[in-house]
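Let's practice the habit of predicting before peeking. Look at the sequence and jot down your guess about where helices and strands might fall. Then scroll down.
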Amino acid sequence: MRLHLAASSTPALAGLTGLLAVGLLSVPVGAVPAAGPTAGRDGAVGWGAAAVADQVADRSAPRLKVRRLVGRLDIPWDVQPVAAGTFLLTERDRRRLSVVQQGERRTVRFPRSAVWSSGETGLMSLAVSPDFATSRRFYACHGGFAGNGHDVRVTSWRLSPDGARARGGTVLLRGIPASSGRHGGCRLLLDRRTGALLVGTGDAAVGTNPRDLGSLGGKVLRLDPGTGAPWPSNPFVGSADARTRYVLTYGHRNVQGLAQRSDGSLWSVEQGSDRDDEVNLLVPGGDYGWNPVPGYNEAVPMTDPSLPGEQVSARWRSGRPTLATSGAAWVQGKQWGALEGTLAVAALKASRLLFLRFDESGVHQRVRAPRRLRSFGRLRSVTSLPSGRLLVTTSNGGGADEVLEIRPR
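Done guessing? Here is the structure:
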């Protein structure tokens, strides 16, 4: 058996004593404050919630301004721009699709009765076609009804010119497993280089799903957004099993975020069990090592080196305790200063936004967690706008959630 090693730098951090833990906090890889990092056998270093909270002041990054774009929401799962100042928005449990324009929300007529909602599953991720201005096409991932049971599926829609109604509802991919609704999260991303549609899926809390190439659960899938067919260069596209042809990577627990870096590389964010949320660099055909069997044994490592073959190790991991990492987007624009080029990752349980720095080869270097972004509760999705500003959704429930716009001052 072999474990693919993720390189890690370990520069020392001097002068911790006497620095005030205020403002924008930062820790280089290998620094050891009171609650230090956990290092896996592959050398990747992560920071648990306590360690992130104890980072030292860093004044090299800009102060941040936060504006509420829209409020009075309930578990907004995703928000995506369709035009300047206009956004599509999903709410998971309400199964509600909305258009937000200039801070005003309008409900879109959408067959919400066809969306199955339970636990962590409902109306979830969105992706907007690059030619939306003419095609009006967008994609959604949501729970669905399948015979006497349920599944998670990817559908294609067209928004009416007045934004009042979604038409179509063509199912591009069905059969992503669903059990109680646990680990049913589904994240979409359109590859801007190839046009392929990526789908990050959860394992539905079924231990055999992640490494079963005949299951669509615990995977990153890749398909043609026009036809729903498996992407022709997928690593298992020649398989006799139709479902296996969709698989790009496998061995995942619960993929919550997908993001594409400026160099074209594809990255996923995934929630750990009691340890090790992960950020992964996606390698076609890669096994990411989650295999919670027999039963659903969450005591096993997120990347298990005892498995046969080669496992791809995480580029960053949280250690203990987990932060419940969720959506992610790469930060663009010189106005972000020291945060330009970082991966912004939302955290639900830890109620913060992490800015992770990776070098050009994908080695993790630094994590920042601005105090300014720690007062909004659970954070779920991160969207990067063409202007470089970020949209972040809160996930606190009770009709008190918001979409926040974040920019440097």
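How did you do? The helical segments are 49-53, 132-135.
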